[in-house]
Amino acid sequence: MSEILYEQPGFRAGSTHPGSETLIDNSRFVFLIGLAVDVMLFAGLIGGYFVLRGGTQVWPPTDLPHLNKELIGLSSISLALGAFFLSLTVQAQNRNELIRMRASLIISLIFLTVFLGMNAIEWKNLLTGGLQVRTVFGGIYFLVTGVFHIHILAGMCYILLKYRRTLRWKYYTRSTVSIAHLSYFMYAMLIVWLGIYGVVYL
Amino acid sequence: MSTLPISEPKIIRSESQGSFWSNIFSLDHKTIGKQYLFTSLFFLLVGGALAMMMRLQLGWPGHHFGFLNWIFSQRVVADGIIMPDFYNALFTMHGTFMIFFAIMPLLVGGFGNYLIPLKIGARDMAFPRLNMISYWLFLTAGLIMLSSFFVEGGPAAMGWTAYPPLSDVKDYTGIGAGMNLWLVSLLISGIASVLGAINYITTIVNMRAPGLTWFRLPLTVWSLFIVATLLLIAIPVLTSAIILLLFDRTVFTSFFVPNAVGDHTGGGQVLLWQHLFWFFGHPEVYIMILPAMGIASDVLSNFARKPIFGYHAMVYSMLAIAGLGFFVWGHHMFQSGMNPFLGTSFMVSTMVIAVPSAIKTFNWLGTLWGGNFKFDTPFLFAVGFVAMFVIGGLSGIFAASTPVDIYFHDTYFIVAHLHYVLFGGSLFAIFAGLYFWYPKMFGRMMNERLGKAHFWTMLLAFNGVFFPMHILGIGGMQRRIYDYMQFPHLAHFQPLNAFMSICAFILGFSILLFLFNFFWSMKRGKLAGPNPWRATTLEWTVSSPPPHGNFAEIPYVFRGPYEYSVPGHASDYWPQNEPPSGKDEL
Amino acid sequence: MLGYTTPPLPSPLVRGGRLFDLSHLLRGRLLMDVIPQYHHWWLPDEASSYASQIDGTFYLILWITGIVFALFAITLVVFLIRYRYREGRIAHFTRGSLRLEIIWTIIPAVILVFLAFQSEALWSAIKDPSKFPKNASIIQIHPRQFQWDIAYPGPDGMFGTKDDIKTINELYLPLGQPVRIDLEGQDVIHSFFVPEFRIKQDAVPGLPTSVWIVPTKLGKYDIACAELCGLGHYSMRGTVYVMPKDSIDHWLSSQTAIKK
Ligand code: HEA
Ligand code: HEA
Ligand code: CUA
Ligand SMILES: [Cu+2]
């Protein structure tokens, strides 16, 4: 027979899971799903990298200019620091420390710029060193890293926007979830990047 | 009904009676659902019309169909004869339109948008604006796909699977912009699907009415939830494949081009595309069957007037199909040159994935057992779905067996299989769902007489077209060939093909019957009332069509979705939101 | 019989001579043979050593799925008739049965796993490169839009040398002798398909693949391209001639002579 569940009253209508108040809210949930989709996109591209590598006898190609492991390794550290300072921003915001919040936003932005800068140098070296976009290695290399850099660039634009907004605040930080989301996003990107670095450089 | 302590509903948006533009760019899930419905019915007609052209050629190869020259330019139909490159474009665009712009949006976009909030007792989707964007992206994608018919070189003609290098290097086909538009269109429709899927998941997880626990969800909602997660995993992989192919085509990288040709330096991997495509493609076919299964389950239980047999088994088998669906893609590549040992493991997983489908089939039979059903049109289509799906599933077993697939791969046997599961399966269930929920959507019943006529002509004509395809496949006829008369061992199939073509025209006629009924009933159908099928789920507790915001107050759910003929209950159905009798309300 | 040795093939119950070769009835040919007009509406002749095994597996699945479908259809029709609407009757209330669920999970699972094992044995006998016949002569087929470029190694036994014997769209095979065919597409993917041999293999550019065949029947068969390869896909047809070994040898040496 149909068991009958008597739920406790007291929930908000139509917004949350019955009986539980503390379930993840819509915007955070949707953000996390979106992030998962994004990571799947990279999974597809990196999967493509593996198949191409597996099917080619000499990989990477012999005439490949030097891949600068050290430089890009440093840039990874810079990316990690960028993500870390972004999470400090979230913390500062939660503690209502406006100055620290602004400072860590800027520091994070700087580290991310350094990351992109180092990668720009690497791109330039590879291109002048003769790696062509049309070769298989060149194509997949520039595609995967390029798509990644676009993500970081988008994140940086968002940070700038946020920073401009904080300038309008005077005494206390407004609590919005979006900075927290941005910080998750950077950590996710960091993991993706370590994957790319490991696959391509190591 | 209930006087539960629920906060007063606030109507979230109220532009539904608003201006023309606010109706077009509506945020209401019901309007968006209907927009999906009409748009994808239109694309179904486009895909069907292309199929009719194919059947003309296949039934009477080389015959002069003078009337075609009234419509088509001399380049594609010369002197009444369909040209081979145009034929290739026909089946490519037929498969593309049917899969990406008809079946999938009908099920996921149409039924998904319309039914999810109503069935879970919510006022709308979690993100109405995202929902609207998703529809408009889908429409844009469809229009881009249509526009590719009019560009230089014609539309894509590499099959809906678009295997490179054929789809990659322009010199091999002469098709330039058409193929690029094909890729861009699928890229956009993929984004639309992902946006929709994100929305569905959030809505189902967060916005179920109080008391509506996971195991009180109707199976349609379960299936759409599972499908949404499949989309989220599968689509990004297709997207990455499309990006790679677009780069190959536009900046001449060589991801899929093994030999130097034209501007390509070569060195790529041909099979990479197939792996990425089928990693998406196989889950995609389950994306098109799971909602159909959900719809059929709802309809069968309602008409049998008894609970669905083995509700939990139904849910778990759908989950199993979804999960295993990511480990079988290689069964499309048995003869592709992929390592034969990989082939073996893909065969084993493919065999295993038939088990949950078996569970579902037997549970549908169990639902019918001891029922008490009237043969109304939705029920006929739901039963038709079960029968046709079983035929299609069983022919899948032949294809799954690696040695037998050596012979059947890329023959009409596979074409038979795919139409039995996609047309006999998905489309039959779509019709069941349309006849079933039409009264809810438009407030009127569809005409029963016409509905039955539609069902019987469709069932007979469908089998008349597609059953003989098994015979063609057994006789060794390859698919995607313009003129089988070239092959002495196939020429004797011409009379059979002619018969199939005639059945195909009857099939087209039966769809016209449906369309006539669909539009005629909007004005002339019998008034439906809120609950014409005496069903239990939440959408039937509100007026037809439901008001903006759906529920006057958010319902409270007391029981599962299939409480029919419960012993001791006065009527033979027990709505989910009806407070338990005899006991006091809270 | 033919004087050749086929490589060992699995001989479980689908093998010719046992259960599924008992009669034409079991092999589903009866109707087609009785009405000669429809003879061709079924599997083409078997003309290679493994053709009958593949057909055997086909018939095995046909029987299993046929029986499953018949049982399903009978149940469905009986239910539809018995439980049609009658005034005043109340549907039998049940939510399901765990026992039934277990039964109808296990039985199909067992059947399907059995089928997987049956298929695997035959599949690896045909496709496993380490099981290819050792003494096979080698022929190269490198198809391109829209023709089959065929090459025999000539007297020196090597490809790419001057004495290679080349044909287009015409493949000569010795009766009863194992041959290995090395495939590789020159431009797009094509698929080497000879219905009577029950063999199909994609010829992929950049990825060499091989198949082996022992023709068992003299005659002339079609090579059909089975993978969409563009405008002329439908007309990409070749012919296989299966001839006695000495005629082939004769033909090969005459070709060499012409070259000189
Ligand atoms: C809705 C879509 C849909 C569905 C549900 C399926 C379901 C299945 N498909 Fe199908 N398939 C397609 C759509 C679909 N397919 C399409 C579009 C293609 C062609 C793509 C192209 O190349 O263009 C294709 C191609 C395809 C191939 C590739 C063939 C080739 O190109 O060589 C294979 C091979 O394994 C296959 C197998 C299966 C199997 C085993 C199932 C199983 O899931 C079926 C399970 C169901 C049953 C088995 C029936 C019910 C069960 C019983 C009654 C129980 C008892 C049964 C037994 C004991 C056997 N399919
Ligand atoms: C999703 C589903 C779907 C649906 C519903 C259909 C529906 C139909 N299909 Fe489709 N088909 C595919 C999916 C589908 N197909 C796919 C994926 C392929 C593979 C493509 C590839 O190889 O790349 C394929 C391939 C395919 C082929 C093989 C082509 C080849 O390999 O050479 C054939 C051949 O007959 C065919 C026929 C038909 C017919 C006659 C219908 C009919 O049922 C259509 C009925 C509908 C209508 C007719 C529309 C309504 C009426 C009108 C528009 C008015 C005009 C009517 C008249 C003039 C009578 N299809
Ligand atoms: Cu070559 Cu098709
Ligand atoms: Cu599949």
Provide a descriptive summary of the structure in words.
- The complex is a heterotrimer of chains A (202), B (586) and C (260).
- Helix content of chain A is 72%, strand content 0%.
- With 202 residues, chain A is mainly alpha-helical.
- Chain B is an all-alpha fold and 586 residues long.
- Chain B has a two-stranded antiparallel sheet.
- In chain B, a hairpin with a 2-residue loop joins strand 1 and strand 2.
- Chain B is globular, with a radius of gyration of 24 Å.
- Chain C contains four helices and ten strands.
- In chain C, the strands form two sheets. Chain C has a five-stranded mixed β-sheet with strand order 3-2-1-5-8.
- In chain C, strand 1 and strand 2 form a beta hairpin.
- Chain C is elongated and about 95 Å long.
- The relative contact order of chain C is 0.14.
- The chains are: A mainly alpha (202), B mainly alpha (586), C alpha+beta (260).
- Chains in contact: A-B, B-C.
- At the B-C interface, helix 4, helix 8, helix 9, helix 10 and helix 11 of B face helix 2, helix 3, strand 7 and strand 9 of C.
- Copper (II) ion (CU) binds next to helix 8 of chain B.
- The site of one heme-A has 33 residues of chain B, from helix 2, helix 4, helix 13 and helix 15.
Which secondary structure elements does this structure contain, and how are they paired or packed?
The complex is a heterotrimer of chains A (202), B (586) and C (260).
Chain A: H1 26-55, H2 69-94, H3 98-128, H4 136-168, H5 177-201
Chain B: H1 20-24, H2 29-59, H3 68-71, E1 77-78, E2 81-82, H4 84-120, H5 128-147, H6 177-206, H7 219-250, H8 270-304, H9 311-324, H10 340-368, H11 377-400, H12 402-408, H13 412-442, H14 448-474, H15 494-524
Antiparallel strand pairs in B: 1-2
Helix pairs in contact in B: 2-4, 2-5, 2-15, 4-5, 4-6, 4-7, 4-8, 4-13, 5-6, 6-7, 7-8, 7-9, 8-10, 8-11, 8-13, 9-10, 10-11, 11-13, 11-14, 13-14, 14-15
Chain C: H1 30-34, H2 51-82, H3 98-127, E1 137-141, E2 149-152, E3 165-168, E4 170-174, E5 179-183, E6 190-194, E7 199-203, E8 209-213, E9 219-225, E10 237-243, H4 245-259
Parallel strand pairs in C: 1-5, 4-10
Antiparallel strand pairs in C: 1-2, 2-3, 5-8, 6-7, 6-9, 9-10
Helix pairs in contact in C: 2-3
Bound molecules: heme-A (2 copies), dinuclear copper ion and copper (II) ion (CU).
